[in-house]
Records
---
Amino acid sequence: MPPKIKILLVDDHPLVREWLANLINEEPDLEVCGQTGNAPEALGLIGTFLPRIVIVDISLDNGSGLELIKNVKSVHPKVDMIVLSMHDEMLFAERAMRAGAAGYVMKRDATDKVLAAIRAVLQGATYFSNAVNAMLAQKLVKGPGDQPTAIAALSDRELEVFQLLGRGYSTRQVSEQMNVGFKTVHAYCARIKEKLNLASINELAFHAIRWHESQQPR
């Protein structure tokens, strides 16, 4: 009997990890080899277990899912990454693809699509929704088209800062979470304020919290 295909789970919600583990371990040829909600720990587990696929959320403890994907693909290029997130795929799926992800599944659709994504990736394909594929095809054929929304215009790191502010982090806590200097965070905030046409850090925090709330499942 061939060895089972190893899947690693990286999500900061233990209940989500438990549900995913139960779903995947019911498949006769798949097994969850490890799980964590912490980005630095995830890198260690990937080096230890060498999974075939990593399922990762965008928002993690002590790091960003997008940055984790970039780091993993630079060190372990044969490991495939699938994003499973509550965050709007129209904003994050293309970023995830650019970072190196082979698939993107919204958590609200996860029950019937996680296994489909895993199977597609194992066959050498990518797995993105029809809406995302249509958006990417339009960009390929016609170019970017409309100007991007202000939030979509943020860089990956600026968006990470914006997300953390939306979760209620102070700029000092953002600095610690991202493992960058305090001045670097303030530079990111300055660029975000400019792009979003906001006057102050308080206005930025309010805007970020409102946006974060809009991303939560209803």
Note: The mean pLDDT is 88.
---
Amino acid sequence: MEDEGAKVRPSPLGLAVLSLLIAGPLHPYGMQRLIRLWGKDQVINVGQRANLYKTIARMKEGGLVTIRHSERSFQYPERTVYQLTDEGRAAVRDWLTEMLAAPRREFPQFPAALSFAMLLTPQAAEAALARRAEVLRGRLTELEEELPRHSARLPRVVLLDDEYRRALTAAELTWITGLIDELRSGELTWSEDQLVDLASADLGGVDPELVE
């Protein structure tokens, strides 16, 4: 018989839910609160609680979690508390190992925009990148301030994602700063005529029927 857990597609939010349930049963509000308290909402999209409920529902249907009980208090509406199944306990380690080991082809917005930056003038591209660099400087400052504060109460292994974001942000800022310098000096430049000529040359040997 096919493993039920194999039917559930791994996702960052699903991984977070299963990982939190390793520590013990939780209701969705508790999961969301811990994700935010530990700063994991910077790397996991948990902004809409509806997405969290949908993810939990999929994992329940796939046999990775099950309902332990429901609880009610005078302050809050009834809450459903979930716990891991044996399949869920195995799945979280399988998902985590695969996500750590295998780089995934992802398609973020910034590289896509860079691939068509030539549609702007060099001056417009330089201005846009300068704005991005300013945002990155702010983010890097925040990370530099947050890491020591969190490390005072959390072990380093919990903060590896923050270290990674800091390293990526610093590397991106360094690269963009160099690119801006090249644009300002004129070392990197282009024109619309050059791009038209390039496109014409590359399409010259293509069957016209394929590009109509």
Note: The first helix runs from residue 12 to 22.
---
Amino acid sequence: MTQNQPLRHLGIIMDGNRRWAKNRGLPTLEGHRRGYNKMKDLVKWCIKHGIKILTVYAFSTENWYRSKTEVNYLMNLFRQALKKEIREIDKEGVRVKVIGQKERLAPDIQKMIFEAEEQTRKNNKFLFQIAISYGGRPEIISAVKKIIGQKIPAEKITEDLISQNLWTAGVIDPDLIIRTSGEERLSNFLTWQSAYAELMFIKKHWPDFNERDLGEIIKKYHKRQRRFGK
């Protein structure tokens, strides 16, 4: 039986903000606000539990098709995170990395991302990787285009080479991916990187997720045996 490995990298699909709000008779945007606050808590919980990398699915490439009001609200939440939270994150020794089609974001958000990444670049206590305007398939297409641009012969293309050209280059693949709100699919999240990740799906909507839930999930993860196909 294969020895289990430590939980180093956690990926999470923060689903259910809108359903959470609807169930309580609240505006959709309030669900996103509560979800944003929960994401801040999650960073602290992960550090406390010894996790070294957290990747959150904050905004997918498909989310651009939502209403203009909802998209604008989410973008303003990103602005708030990148402007108001970065000082505290930096003090905690957290490095911030944003992955996705950043060119689709407003210029001021792109600038704030660059500044946040530069400000926290040397921090090595914890990596907070935020997937914004992200899609797993677009990421793979981007990697293929980079490789073609480098004029690398087909026989030289390996899994490692593709990994080195993804937006997550230099970051280990996730050990565990959690999705909240009862849906049981990855929805274009870390498509390449999730090949051997453990998957867990819980019924709670994201704003209801708490530290006890995370602790229980970590316990379940450690009971699993990861064989990586061997």
Note: Residues 9-135+174-223 form a domain with the Undecaprenyl pyrophosphate synthetase fold (CATH 3.40.1180.10).
